[in-house]
Amino acid sequence: GESVGLHLPTLSVQEGDNSIINCAYSNSASDYFIWYKQESGKGPQFIIDIRSNMDKRQGQRVTVLLNKTVKHLSLQIAATQPGDSAVYFCAEKGPNQAGTALIFGKGTTLSVSS
Amino acid sequence: EPEVTQTPSHQVTQMGQEVILRCVPISNHLYFYWYRQILGQKVEFLVSFYNNEISEKSEIFDDQFSVERPDGSNFTLKIRSTKLEDSAMYFCASLLDSGNTIYFGEGSWLTVV
Fold it and tell me: Which of A8, A42, A57, A109 has the most C-beta neighbours closer than 10 Å?
């Protein structure tokens, strides 16, 4: 089965709205999670990360929430802008605890209309 | 800002041909990776490389694939005999050290015909 996944393949919002993108993971031993943004034809771009000893972390206009009880991760984008339109992937550190590879979920396409 | 660079940006190759995709990771990084993304799908891990050897690999990374760090700056992915299903975007990535952020290149789009 898939280790990391997202609840919705697409999300459409109006400019200025807050966006919430969700992700569920299955490996309860995962201790590191990252959100990446991928614009069309480009590589994944790091947004924010969180370790399992935290349940919330804030960046500039973005917040990541981690709920280990239900193995759920979310990315909140405040005051969404057209430039935020992209595919968003959550990723977790792979099952090899000594390794550094990331395992990606399927992605949510965020469309922001002005 | 330092970045991972990849060449070529796009390559078209005939089925059965060998392909080498090249990457220059961020200069002081220690871990190197190849990922691939089939059109419209998620990013899939292929292989990680540390201390001049493969440290992890996925089921996708079979005997048709190999990686090499021929000098102090380049990191290559070779596909020995390409198949149609190898058509994908291939991303190189690098990591300074465990616990830091993995940075991705812009990708090499491989089309096998």
Answer: A109
